[in-house]
Each structure stands twice: as structure tokens, then as C-alpha cells.
Amino acid sequence: MSSKIVSGIRPTGNLHLGNYFGALRNFLKLQEENDCYFFIADYHGLTTHPTPENLQENVKQVLAEFVACGLDPDKATLYVQSDVPEAIELYLFFNMNAYLGELQRVTTFKEKARKQPNNVNAGLLTYPTLMAADILIHRASKVPVGKDQEQNLEMTRTFAKRFNHMYQTEYFPEPVAYNFGDELVKVPGLDGSGKMGKSEGFGNAIFLIDDEATIKKKIMKAKTDSGPTEKNSEMPDYIQNLFSLMDIVSETDTITQYKDAFADCSIRYGDMKKQLAADMNEFIAPFRDKIQSIVSNDELLSKIAKQGRDKARESAQRTIKEVRDIIGFKSI
Ligand code: TYM
Q1: Whose CA is closest to atom 1 on ligand 1?
Q2: DSSP per residue over 147-177, as a string?
Q3: Which of 41, 71, 179, 322 is deepest in the core (most CB within 10 A)?
């Protein structure tokens, strides 16, 4: 059965492997049979980058990256968040029934507040209500995201339930964080700290536009040690992370070979990293080439953005009209 699916990505940098496996890859299958919306979260970007440089260029770059990953503007609705202001009205309605305590308890809020203590703004605090509005403006039931977004999805369900309860309706679904037939994904970064992310500094993330030399340089710098000294010893996290990346891009036989070498202490991390860099480059190359071939095609990108905006607004306008009716707004 066809479902409504929504997800978004902030345009605060290029797309990396985590974005691809956490969110985008799901859409490739989902867009075939469902009503899919995928947007560039430029409003959300302002919570951490209030005076963004080259905002339009970044948005264009991310749109090109969506298409390069295989998102099809004729199948899915690809749009820019700020092109659909109806969601902001829904954001306002949800904010009226969102409580300070629950917003302050969200882990991503606490993390961001720690990282930018001089800019703990209301947008950051109400990040989950805007996210709920992004999702529920299309009344979506599934949201393909990485594991880091799980709590935000829990908040979305809270706001949906609260609205339904307050107005004695079943209007909004309770959307779930979704990964195609599997558990939510967390792609590790290269700095040993756990998650691949664009804000963790150069070297942690592999971007879909990285060239061969950059990929190699980043991977060769990843943290390792002098190797295990006891057979079948436990793997340190930073080594496990390298194997997790291999799981994504390398052949099963290759992975088994290095796992066996770890178990019998014959592993040479230099060789393993060279192998990972070569496999990674092979995986990234088609994305890189496709991005390069479309990113400067302004005409194509603005056509795609317009097509997406029109489709997204149609869906959003329908919802906002119905929500206004439910709440009781009427012209006098
Ligand atoms: P953002 O821009 O941080 O990340 C975009 C998507 O990529 C996923 N992701 C990862 N998945 C696995 N491993 C990783 N290392 C990794 N890093 C990032 C994220 O889980 C996300 O799916 N709040 C969102 C943007 C957003 C949104 C929404 C998403 C705004 N409104 C509505 C879904 C629905 C964010 O900051 O994503």
C-alpha cells in the first residue's frame, strides 16, 4: 500500500556517507511506490548558522546531490523548506502546545546548547516542533532518518497525539522513524568519536563529492593502534568503526579476510586502510561524477525546485486549510 513519506536535510555542508545511508538511500526504493517528499531544511539550518554564507549556493549544491543520489523529481517531490511557508503556520500551532520542559529535555537541544552557549536561541529550542510541522504538513506516516533523529520523531508523535486529543480528531498520523526493513542506521566517522557528521571537523566525514586523494588522506589519518596482541581480543571502538565503514563499501570476502587477520593478530592497519580507501573511492566515484555534471546546470536545478515547490505547496495548503477548520478559524 502506498504511504506518505517525508524527510529533510540541512544545507550546512555537502552530503556525506551518513546522510546517504541514514536517509537518502531509503528514498530510492520508497519513491517508486509512495508519495515521497524530500526537502532541504534551510530554515533549520538557521538554528546553528544564523547568518549563512552563500545560502542559495548551498541549497543548490544539496539539490544537485539529491538528484545525483538517484532521487527522481518526477517520482518524489524535491523541494526547499523555505518555499513552503504553510509549514510555518503549523509550526506556530504546535508551538502553542509545546512545553518548555519537554523541549529542554531533548538530547540534541542539550548538545547544541553546550556547543554554542552564546546562541541558545528559541529556534534551537523549538527545533522539534518545526520538524513535526515539516512532517505533519504532509500527514506523513514514515520518516527515513538516521538513528540520531529518533528522539525528534518521538516528539513529532507527541505533538500529533496532543493535537488530535485537544481537538478530538484523528487528523494527524503518528509518524515513525524508518529505515528500509531494518534498524535505524548510525554511520561512524573517522575521528574515533562515533558519528559521521559535517560539523565534526575536516577528516571525520567522507563527502559524496570527495576526490580520490581526499578520501585516501582522510582514511589513512583515521585513528588506529599497533594492533591486537592477544588472539580473539575485543575490538576497540575506533577499529570497529573502520570495519563498519568496510561493511558499507567492501566485498564480504575482503571484510572476512581482515576480520580473520584481526582475530589472529596478523592484521596490518595500513593495508586495511588502503583497501578501505580504494573501496570507498569506488563507491563514491559515481556520485562525485554525477554531482559535478549537474551542479552548474542552473536551469535544470531551478526547474526541479519549482516543480517540487508547486507539488509540496499543494499538499501543504490542503493540510493547513483543514487544520484551520479543525481549530475553528473562520473568516468573519
Ligand atoms: P541532518 O541534516 O543533520 O542530517 C540529514 C539526515 O542524515 C542522517 N544522518 C545520519 N544517518 C546515519 N549516520 C550518520 N552518521 C548520519 N548523519 C546524519 C540524519 O539522521 C538525517 O536523516 N533534523 C534533521 C533535518 C530535518 C528533518 C525534518 C528530517 C528537518 N526537518 C523532518 C526528517 C523530517 C537534521 O538535522 O538532519
Answers
A1: 9
A2: GGGHHHHHHHHHHHHHHHHHTT---S---EE
A3: 41
Where do we find the cell 537518502? 24
CA nearest ligand 1 atom 37, residue: 9
79 grid coordinates: 523541494
**Residue with the nearest Cα to atom 5 of ligand 1?**
9
- All structural domains of the chain with their residue ranges: 4-186+298-327, 198-292
What count of other Cβ atoms lies within 10 Å of the Cβ of residue 226?
A: 6
Contact criterion met (CB below 8 Å) for 190 and 218: yes
Q: What is the mean pLDDT of the chain?
A: 95
At 68, phi and psi to the nearest 5? -60, -30
Q: Is 198 a catalytic residue?
A: yes
The reply to whether 198-292 shares the fold of 4-186+298-327 is no
> Is the pLDDT at 251 greater than 70, yes or no?
yes
Ligand 1 centroid distance, CA of 50 (Å)? 19
Q: Write down the CATH number for the domain with range 198-292.
A: 1.10.240.10
pLDDT for position 202: 67
Among 48-57, 224-233, 264-273, name the one with the lowest average pLDDT. 48-57
The predicted model gives 211-233 an average pLDDT of: 95
Architecture of the domain defined by 4-186+298-327: 3-Layer(aba) Sandwich (3.40)
Region 265-286: what's the mean pLDDT?
A: 97
Q: 92: which strand partners?
A: none
Residues 6+ apart with CB under 8 A from 325: none
Q: Is 161 a catalytic residue?
A: no
201, pLDDT greater than 70: no
User: Residue 119 pLDDT > 80, yes or no?
Assistant: yes
| Residue 197, CA atoms < 13 Å, CB-side half-sphere | 12
Among 59, 148, 150, say which to mutate for ligand 1: greatest number of ligand atoms within 8 Å of CB.
148
